[in-house]
Design brief:
CATH superfamily of one domain in chain B: MetI-like
CATH class of the largest domain in chain A: Alpha Beta
CATH architecture of the largest domain in chain A: 3-Layer(aba) Sandwich
Helix content of chain A: 25-40%
Oligomer: heterodimer
Radius of gyration of chain A: 24 Å
Largest sheet of chain B: none
Order of helices and strands of chain A: EEEHEEEHHHEHEHEEHHEEEEEEEEEEH
Structural class of chain B: mainly alpha
CATH architecture of one domain in chain B: Orthogonal Bundle
Helix content of chain B: over 70%
Distance between the termini of chain B: 37 Å
CATH topology of one domain in chain B: MetI-like fold
Number of domains of chain A: 2
Order of helices and strands of chain B: HHHHHHHHHHHH
Largest interface: A-B, 31 and 24 residues
Strand content of chain A: 25-35%
Structural class of chain A: alpha+beta
Distance between the termini of chain A: 28 Å
Shape of chain B: globular
CATH topology of the largest domain in chain A: Rossmann fold
Number of helices of chain A: 9
Chain lengths: 369, 271
């Protein structure tokens, strides 16, 4: 493992009696794309501001390349921020905005001009140097904000919900561009968003946050396939979450039946929750089915049908199917053991990881979605 | 229907505009072309621009208005900046605005009391051993009191400009490596300059035509355009000349408005 570029150690942030961040520990390695994901008010922006230096941690250490930087002012930190509303200076042209940091460093004029031109080219706005900020569209402002930050050649780029003001199509395009940019520059990105799709699409690693705590961290695939609890499962993607009971290792009961699953290390008879993603459910005829459900309603989503159904015990099911079904029809659904994910109540990430270690090492095949 | 209703709403404003803006300005311009014998003439203007006395007085007015505006800005910007950092800033701002609710004459008389031979200021000077000085009826006291009276009108627009400033700009500036001073002079000050300009407009023009203070506090040592207008209308009864100076003031106002107005955005063509 390389030297981490940013480390937060037991970082706590309180405003009066209100705790915004509860004992945050996280490590960012150099050159990766990280995402802080959570609903608004979960503290993700506060983490960003703590790293940028706009706010102090009440307790704990912020380390940059191994050095404690709690007391280093924002203007002396080798990180740059892309702000949510871009914060481009309206009294300067595009080029003056991008050059701002370099002129403060008193770089020679030819060097500034060259680096500004390069940065503008990188965000595909090479000819826009003379424009007024007010003459740019939202997407262009977004790119200039990125250019203004990366021209400083920071080791870490902090992005505070930079895509939230863009329309859906532009947002998708910018997701590709940001990911591409990060890989070309090879610097660490820490991206803050409440949009789980954005997080899944771009990140090397996601930190899922809620109420000032990091609930789970891991690759997008890990978090999607093996959410640690109800909140994460519900927040990331769509899911069927059902109450169940552990029968034995790799055996779980729910919906009135017992099924083979891919989870172990949970005490027998413990009440658990089962997660099944809607796209892992396959419609079949009742004879071959693991469960039988009645179709309530369905919506055509373009590339699939979103089907709402109810089983005999009254549990609601959400199914994504390429083929339509008939309302009121009784159909069978089937799934593979590895499509089930069992969650324990109140399990912490460390316990969860340790439990996974005990049985997952010899068999990685169930990682496939 | 809707058109007629819109016209109804325009009536109060239209009346106000016609009676108190267009008519007086028209009358002043009209009057400025008549001499004492009510003959149409441009002599008032030629007199004005050929008389050393009038030109010196104009320069004097501009100079004193400039000094008053300068001191007002120098005091008001830091004050507004400081007030804006405070927790109950609206309350502290109210305290600054409060004196503007008191009539200017009352304030002038209060200063006569404070600056007089036996006044508070001289009592203090005597106490620290300097002895009583002539404070009242000096140019310095005139500038002092005029600045005091104008300060709220400068603080308010600057305060509002600071209030409108998105704090993200300040963070962005720091983020890009700017020190507190660099952030101030490259981001905060340029972005609050419209507030300063609005303040200059609100202070400079009225300062050109101050006449109550020049008499009560300045002892008529400073003759401003305002004093001259008052003299012509009330003492020499030369309304034509008074109106001519009035026109000069209106032109000065237009010049200041143009100089402090919004400049054309620089750089490329907006699309």
């Amino acid at each position: 493992m390389t030297q981490p570029i940013i480390t937060l150690r037991n970082v706590t942030k309180r405003y009066g009696t209100h705790t915004i961040l509860k004992n945050i520990n996280l490590t960012l390695e150099s050159g990766k794309f990280y995402t802080l994901l959570g609903p608004s008010g979960c503290g993700k922006t506060t983490i960003l501001r703590t790293i940028a230096g706009f706010t102090d941690a009440t307790d704990g250490d912020v380390l940059f390349a191994g050095d404690r930087i709690n007391d280093v002012p924002a203007n002396k930190r080798n990180v740059n921020t892309v702000f949510q509303d871009y914060a481009l200076f309206p009294h300067m042209t595009v080029a003056e905005n991008v050059a701002f940091g370099l002129t403060l460093k008193k770089r020679p004029k030819p060097e500034i001009a060259e680096r500004v031109a390069q940065a503008l080219k990188l965000v595909q706005l090479a000819d826009y140097g003379d424009r007024e900020i007010s003459a740019l569209s939202g997407g262009q402002q977004q790119r200039i904000a990125i250019a203004r930050a990366i021209v400083m050649e920071p080791q870490v780029l902090l992005l505070d919900e930079p895509l939230s003001a863009l329309d859906a199509k532009l947002r998708r395009q910018m997701q590709y561009e940001l990911r591409d940019l990060q890989q070309r520059l090879g610097i660490t990105f820490l991206f803050v968003t409440h949009d789980q799709e954005e997080a899944l699409a771009m990140s090397d690693e996601i930190f899922v946050m809620s109420q000032g705590e990091v609930l789970q961290s891991g690759s997008p695939v890990d978090i999607y396939d093996e959410p640690i609890n109800h909140f994460v499962a519900d927040f990331i993607g769509e899911s069927n979450i059902l109450p169940g009971k552990m029968i034995a290792d790799f055996q779980v009961a729910f919906g009135g039946h017992q099924f083979e699953c891919a989870d172990a290390g949970i005490p027998v008879n413990e009440a658990v929750e089962i997660v099944i993603r809607p796209e892992d459910l396959t419609l079949t005829d009742p004879a071959n089915a693991k469960l039988t459900v009645t179709i309530d309603t369905q919506l055509f989503r373009g590339d699939y049908y979103e089907i709402a159904a109810t089983d005999s015990l009254g549990n609601d099911w959400l199914i994504h199917s390429v083929n339509p079904a008939e309302d009121g029809e009784s159909v069978g659904i089937t799934f593979r053991p590895q499509d089930l994910h069992v969650m324990r109540f109140g399990e912490k990430e460390a316990e969860f990881d340790a439990r996974l270690e005990t049985y997952e090492t010899e068999d990685e095949s169930h990682d496939e979605p | 229907m809707t058109n007629r209703k819109t016209w109804l709403y325009f009536i109060p404003y239209g009346l106000w505009l016609a009676l108190f803006v267009i008519a007086p300005v028209g009358l002043i311009i009209y009057q400025s072309f008549f001499d004492l014998g009510h003959h149409f003439t441009v002599a008032n203007y030629s007199t004005y621009f050929q008389s050393a006395t009038y030109l010196k007085m104009t320069l004097n007015s501009v100079w004193y208005a400039f000094l008053i505006t300068l001191f007002t800005v120098l005091i008001s910007y830091p004050t507004a900046y400081f007030l804006h950092q405070l927790k109950h800033r609206q309350f502290w701002l109210l305290l600054v605005i409060l004196p503007t609710w008191i009539n200017i004459l009352l304030k002038a008389y209060a200063f006569i009391g404070i600056f007089s031979q036996a006044g508070l200021a001289n009592q203090f000077l005597t106490f620290i051993g300097i002895g009583p000085q002539q404070i009242l009826f000096t140019n310095a006291s005139f500038i002092f009191v005029a600045t005091y009276i104008q300060i709220p009108f400068m603080i308010l627009p600057i305060f509002n400009a600071l209030d409108d400033l998105n704090p993200a700009f300040i963070n962005a500036s720091k983020d890009l490596g700017a020190s507190a001073w660099q952030t101030f002079h490259r981001v905060i000050f340029p972005l609050t300059l419209p507030g300063v300009k609005a303040g200059v407009q609100a202070v400079f023009i009225p300062s050109l035509s101050l006449f109550m203070l020049t008499r009560l506090i300045g002892g008529n040592k400073v003759i401003t355009l305002g004093t001259a207008i008052e003299e012509h209308f009330l003492t020499t009864m030369n309304w034509g000349m008074g109106s001519t100076i009035g026109v000069v003031l209106i032109v000065a106002m237009i010049i200041v408005m143009t100089l402090t107005g919004d400049q054309k955005p620089k750089g490329g063509t907006p699309r």
